Amino acid sequence: MKDKVPVIVFIGQPNCGKSTLFNSIAGFKAQTSNFPGTTVTHAHSEVLWRGKVYSIVDLPGTYSLTPHEPQEKVVLTHIFKEKPDLIVNVIDASLLCRSLELTLELLELEYPMVVVLNMMDLAEKKGMKIDVEELEKKLGVPVIKTVAIHGLGTKELMINIERAVSSGKAPQAIKYSREVEKRVQQLMEIFPEDFPIVANKRFTAIKAIEAETLAVDKFFLENNRAFKQELDRIRKEISNLREAPAYEVISAERHHLALKIFEDCCRVRHAKVSWVEKLDNFIMHPVLGYLFLLLIFAGMFYLIFKVGSPLETWLLKPWEALRSSIESQFGQSLLAELLVGLIQGIGGGIAIVFPYFIPLLLLMGFLEDVGYLARAGFLLDAFMHRLGLHGKSVPLFILGFGCNVPAIMATRILESKRDRIVTALLIPFIPCAARTTIILALVAFLLGPWWALGFYFFNLLVIALLALILRKFFKYSSPGLILEIPSLKIPSLKNIWQKTYFNLKEFVRFAWPILIAGSVFLSLLTYIKFDRLINAALSPFVSGLLGLPQTLGVTLIFGFLRKELSLLMMFQALGVGYQQLLSVITRTQLLTFVVFVNFFIPCLSTLAIIWKELGRKIAFLSIALNLSVAVVLSWLIRLIFLVF
Amino acid sequence: MFGRKENHHINTQHPEGICTLLEVPIGQTFRIVEIKGGPGLHRRLLALGFHRGDLVSLDGEAIMRGPVLVRNLTTDTRVALGRGIAQKILVEPVKSDEG
C-alpha cells in the first residue's frame, strides 16, 4: 500500500479555474505529461509534496455526472475505471449555488473528497460572504478557499490533500427528501446479484433512475427484464410525486438541497455595479458590442499582416540566403538539391511557427481565458446559424487568415465533433497569409487592387456556399445554442502559455517533420528531372482543361508544400521576371492559375494537422473537396473569360 | 421512449399569464413553470442549473433573431440560449412582493 502513488482527480464545472489551480499546484511538480485524447484532453501531473508523490489528474469541466457530452464521458470513465483516492471538487465561489449541485452529486459517490472554493476574490467583489465552517459542516468534507490565479491557498490545499489521502475518510451522501429517498432505498434493496455496483448501492440506484431515456436503459432491459420492470415502477412513482420525469425530480432534489445549503452558508449583500459589469454590458450591447467585435477582428488582421507577414519575410531571409549560397557553391548536384530541400522545410516551419502560430494561438487563448470567445459566439450565432455552424466557429475562421494550421488546431474549442469537422473542412478555403501574398503579388499588382478585393470577396462567397453545401451532408442536429456566459475575468498568462505550448509541441513533433520530409522528397524529384514527367503527366489537365502553359504543372506540386512556393516556381517555370509576366501569359490564364493555386489542396502542414486532429478520412475528404472546388472554379473562370 | 409522455403532458393553451421566455420584456423577473422539449435538452438545462420554480430574467438579445441572454436569479448564472430553446421554457410573472 505504501508504494502506491495516490491518484487525485480535479473535477469541477467549466470555467471554475480548475486548470489554473492545477497549474499552480503542478508547480511543485516532479514531472508533467499530457495525454491528448481525440476530442478532449486532460492533463496529468506527478506532484511531489513533503517527500511523497501524488498523481494529479485535471479532468475536463463538467456540469453534471450524467453523460451526454464527450467531456462528461471522459470524467465518468475516469471516476469509475481508475477509482481515485481523492476527489478535489473545484468550485467557482462566485457561482457557489449552482456549483453545489455537482458537489452534491460527487458526494453521492462517497469517495474521500475535498472542496475548493476558488475565485474567492470574485465572490467577495460580488458581495458574497461565505461561511466556510458552516459549509464544511453541511457537506462533511474539508473546504479550502483559494484564488488560484494568484496562487493563494494552494499550500493549504496540499496540506488538506495530504491529510485526506492519509486518513482515507469518506464523506456521507446527503439524503433527499423523505418520499424520494424512500424510493431510492427501495431500488437499492432489489438489485440483482450480478448487477454492476458503481461506487456504492445508493449512487448506483440514483444513476439507474436517472438513466431513463439514456442508452444505458436498454442495457438494463436486455439483461434483466424483471429488474427493469421494478425500476420503471419506481421511476413512475417518483415521477408522480412531482409531476415531472424521474430524472428531473432527482435533479431538482439536488437543486433544492444546494439552494438550502447556499442560503445557510452564504449571505449576499448587493454590491454596486462594478466596472467589469459595465464593460460586459458594452461588449454584449446589440450595437456597440458588434463594433467592438469588429475592432477585435481588425486587430487580428493587423497582427497577421502588419506583424506576422513582415516577420515571416525577415525570418525567411537567412534561409533564402543560405539556399542561394548552397546553389552557387554546389551547383546542381544531388547534395545541393537535398540540402536546399532540407533548408526549405526547416525554414518553412519557422515561417509558420513564429509569425503566425505562436502569436495567434496566444491571442486566441487570451480571448478564451478572459471569457470573450463565449460572448463572440453569442453575438454571431444567428449569422453562423444560417451557414449551419455556431457562433463559436467565427474566431477560428479569422485565425485562418493568418495560418490555417493553428486555426484547425483551435477547433478543439468546439464541443461537437460535427462542428469541428465542418469547420476544419472550411478553414483550408480561407486565404491564409501565404495565399494572400500570391493574391497581392499576382492579382493586385498586375491587374489592380480592385481585382484583388473582388477576389477576396469571391473567396468568402465560395466559403459561404460551401458551408451551405456541407450542411446538406453533415446534418445540423443541434437544437440550438446553449452556452454559459462566464463572468469576465483577468486571464492567467500561465494558462494561456501552457495551452499554446501544448499545441506548439504537437506541431513541431508532427507537422514539421512531414514538411521537411516532403520538401526533401520534392528536391529529389527535381534532381532526377522528374518535373518534366510531372509536367507531361499533368499536361492534359493543366493545358487541356485550364488552358495554362504546360510548364506550370510542376509549380502546383510545389504549392502543396507551401503555397507561396507556387509563386516563386511560376517565374522559374516560365523563365521570366515579375514585370514581364503578362507578356507570356494572358490575364485569363493568370486568374485561372491564382484561383487554382488558392483552392486546390490544403498545404502539407494543414493537411497533416487535419489528419492528426480529425483522422485520415477527413483529411482525404478535405483534399477531395479542395481539389474539386479548385478544378470547377478555375475551369469556370476560363469559360467566363472566353465568353466575355 | 421513457419520459417523453410525461414531458408533453402540458396542453398548448397556456393558462393566464404564462408565456414563453421569448415573449417576456427585458429586465423583468419571471418564474420557470415548465421546460418543454425532449429529454436531451431538458437534461442539459437541468445540468446548467435551470429548474422549475427558478426566477429568471431576460438580459438581452443578439441581432438578426440571434440567441437571447438569460439570467437565472436563483443560482445567479447567465447563459445564452438559442431562440428555439428559449421558446421551450414557459414562465409566469412574479408578484411584486416575492421578486
At CATH's second level, what is the architecture of chain B?
A: Roll
Mean pLDDT of chain B: 81
If strands are numbered along the chain, what order do they take across the biggest sheet of chain A?
2-3-4-1-5-6-8
CATH class of chain B: Mainly Beta
Q: Roughly how much helix do the residues of chain A carry, as a percent range?
A: 55-70%
Q: Please give the share of residues in helix of chain B.
A: 10-25%
CATH topology (fold) name of chain B: SH3 type barrels
Helix count from the secondary structure assignment of chain A: 28
CATH fourth-tier homologous superfamily of chain B: Ferrous iron transport protein A (FeoA)
**Radius of gyration of chain A, taken over Cα atoms and rounded to an integer in Å:** 29 Å
Please give the number of β-strands of chain B: 6
Categorize the overall geometry of chain A: elongated
The total of beta strands of chain A comes to 10
Distance between the termini of chain B: 38 Å
Given as residue ranges, the uncertain stretches of chain A (5+ residues, pLDDT < 50) are 29-40
Structure characteristics:
heterodimer; A: 644 residues; alpha/beta; Rossmann fold; Helix Hairpins; seven-stranded mixed beta sheet; two-stranded antiparallel ribbon; 28 helices; 10 strands; 66% helix; B: 99 residues; alpha+beta; SH3 type barrels; six-stranded antiparallel beta sheet; 3 helices; 31% strand; disordered N terminus
